[in-house]
Amino acid sequence: MLKVRVIPTLLWKQFGLVKGVGFDSWRRVGPVLPAIKVYNQREVDELVLVDIVAHLGDDDPDFESIDEFGQDCFVPLTVGGGITRMEQVQRLLRAGADKVSLNTVTYSHPELVSEIAKRHGVQCVVASIDVRAQIGGGWTCFSHAGQQATRREVAAWARELEDRGAGEILITSIERDGTMQGYDLALIETVVRAVNIPVIASGGAGAYQHLVEAVTKAGASAVAAASMFHFTEQTPAGAKAALAAAGIPMRDSFRESAST
Questions:
Q1: Fewest CB atoms less than 10 Å from the CB: which of 116, 152, 155, 260?
Q2: Is residue 94 part of a domain?
Q3: pLDDT in tens, 8-35
Q4: pTM over 0.90
């Protein structure tokens, strides 16, 4: 079994971080850089930073800000939002990103996944899939920050993204997002069974037990959370301790691993 990662998610909107419920009702929670500095000290394995409004326009990602964040981020950083071209990916990597997360662009230009994987390796590509549950069962994939239905079925789409070169899948339940009521375990398990690459569970974590269940019951290789770490006393270090206590193999903190 792969060692499990704990990954805080930072939702970036214009000038700061926000917290939403169901990809809506965004509430400002503070600036980006102080959050990154705090997480550097909290034994996180990685960070995911997503610009949630970048898909609304044709502007490039904010490379200047990413460069600033990257200088103060001492754990692997995945950056997503508004990525549509290979040149943008290369600039983000130069600015300090270690991986890129692709969502909306994969539906219109799925070949970009293959291009990035070929040039920079599959470990560089995180395929992000946002879904809503269907009446009667199953899930439909949505693009544009959960606003546009794509008619893609989640398991088939995850397999296609893997075939195209994605190194891991970040699967998010839109309905569970921000609720802190727990992950959609059936969704995570469906994706885990569909692919042979790591799956990151996202959307709904609110307690350490939710993280444990995502791994032990649904097979996730990593657990992502936002509200749980921003709005409760629970910490990434506590999450790792709870996972380890459940018999789940955990990575050493990135800072410790980098120093050995």
A1: 260
A2: yes
A3: 999 998 778 888 788 876 778 889 999 9
A4: yes
